[in-house]
Amino acid sequence: MNEALRVALNETGFTTEALAERVGVDPKTVGRWLSEGRIPHARHRVAAADVLRRDVADIWPDTSRRREPVWFRP
Predict the structure, then answer these.
(1) Dist. CA 40–CA 51, nearest whole Å
(2) What sign does the dihedral 40-47-62-65 (CA atoms) show?
(3) Contact 47/23 with Cβ under 8 angstroms?
């Protein structure tokens, strides 16, 4: 479960339906974002973070993590 997104929704008073409307997606899509491992498209992450007044990395930390193997990094 994406606890950071759930907390941000609760703290700002947004429902999944209200966030979906502001971001331009279906409410079921926002519901799926609450599931663990579900990461929305980059434009939706940025829009949701702006609406919730959070950094994208605070809500979806895995998106800012480097994905290449350690031995490949400079």
Answers:
(1) 15
(2) positive
(3) yes
Residues shown for the chain? 74
pTM of the predicted model as reported, rounded to 2 decimal places: 0.79
Q: Give the tens place of pLDDT for each residue, 14-61.
A: 999 999 999 999 999 999 999 877 889 999 999 999 999 999 989 988
Residue 53 CB neighbours (<10 A): 9
Alpha-carbon gap, residue 15 to 60, rounded angstroms: 18
Task: State which amino acid sits at residue 65.
Answer: R
Domains of the chain: 3-63 (1.10.260.40)
Contact assessment for residue 40 and residue 56, using Cβ atoms and an 8 Å cutoff:
no
